[in-house]
From TrEMBL:
Source organism per UniProt: Macrococcus brunensis
Pfam families documented for this protein: HAD
GO biological process: L-methionine salvage from methylthioadenosine; L-serine biosynthetic process
Keywords: Amino-acid biosynthesis, Hydrolase, Magnesium, Metal-binding, Methionine biosynthesis, Serine biosynthesis
Secreted is among the record's keywords: no
Enzyme Commission numbers on file: 3.1.3.87
Homology family: Belongs to the HAD-like hydrolase superfamily. SerB family.
InterPro entries: HAD-like_SerB, HAD-like_sf, HAD-SF_hydro_IB_MtnX, HAD_hydro_PyrdxlP_Pase-like, HAD_sf
Any one GO molecular-function label of the UniProt entry: L-phosphoserine phosphatase activity
Key word Metal-binding present: yes
Protein name as it appears in the record: 2-hydroxy-3-keto-5-methylthiopentenyl-1-phosphate phosphatase
Pathway where this protein functions: Amino-acid biosynthesis; L-serine biosynthesis; L-serine from 3-phospho-D-glycerate: step 3/3; Amino-acid biosynthesis; L-methionine biosynthesis via salvage pathway; L-methionine from S-methyl-5-thio-alpha-D-ribose 1-phosphate: step 4/6
Source organism phylogeny: Bacteria, Bacillati, Bacillota, Bacilli, Bacillales
Signal peptide residues on this chain, from the entry's feature table: none
Example of a GO cellular component annotation carried by this entry: cytoplasm
């Protein structure tokens, strides 16, 4: 049974959270309360992110894409990791709770990504409306993931899963991982819960260890 890589986008491929950066730039005052409620978990991610994007005028689409391309930095070593995965014949998937309209332009600078799973935005109205494309399947114990990363992984067939993530939104993904690379808040969580994991700072750290862990 071969391996696949399931890699988060926000705060993992990017060095900081893209959605938070977008809100701080385009809806700094109005987004504050909703961001706080997502972080203290009194609002689900799905409800919270829907509310946040609904603050944004659809006419701002291009400005947001340009802002993200200019302001958001990529964690070092990303293309090197993609190359390494190709060399080892491991398909590399991006699985994100974010939106295609700002993720795809960033990822178009890179080669070797098998597919990008993310959400759509309806731009037909005055405000942006998030279309959640990947609800939880029957197996997911959460039932309220927003974007259900383990459900997406299950649609990819039976493989051993190498998961890469940074945050609480990757906890359910971490649970279906055979090998788990963590950074930031996901490292803290894995330590607290005694979940086997390999911490990383840059993608070069993963490049160095990938061949060893899949052997
Ligand atoms: Zn789920």
């Amino acid at each position: 049974m071969g391996y696949i890589i399931a890699c988060d986008f926000d705060g993992t491929v990017t060095a900081s959270d893209t959605i938070i950066a977008i809100m701080q730039r385009f809806a700094p005052t109005d987004s504050q309360a909703t961001l706080s409620r997502i972080l203290d978990r009194t609002l689900s991610i799905q409800e919270g992110v829907t509310t946040l994007f609904n603050l944004l005028d659809t006419s701002k689409r291009q400005a947001i894409v340009e802002f993200v391309r200019q302001e958001v930095s990529i964690r070092p070593g990303f293309q090197t990791l993609l190359d390494k995965a190709q060399e080892l014949d491991i398909p590399f998937y991006i699985i994100s709770g974010g939106m295609h309209f700002f993720i795809d332009p960033i990822l178009s600078d890179f080669t070797g990504i098998e597919a990008v799973y993310a959400n759509n935005v309806d731009f037909s109205g005055e405000k942006m409306l998030v279309e959640w494309r990947y609800p939880c399947d029957d197996v997911c114990a959460s039932g309220e993931c927003g974007t259900c990363k383990p459900s997406i992984v299950r649609t990819l067939g039976s493989h051993q899963v190498i998961a890469i993530g940074d945050s609480v939104t990757d906890i359910r993904l971490a649970e279906v991982a055979d090998i788990l690379f963590t950074t930031d808040k996901l490292t803290t969580y894995a330590e607290a819960e005694a979940i086997p994991h390999i911490p990383f700072q840059t993608f070069y750290d993963i490049v160095e260890q990938l061949e060893e862990v899949v052997r």
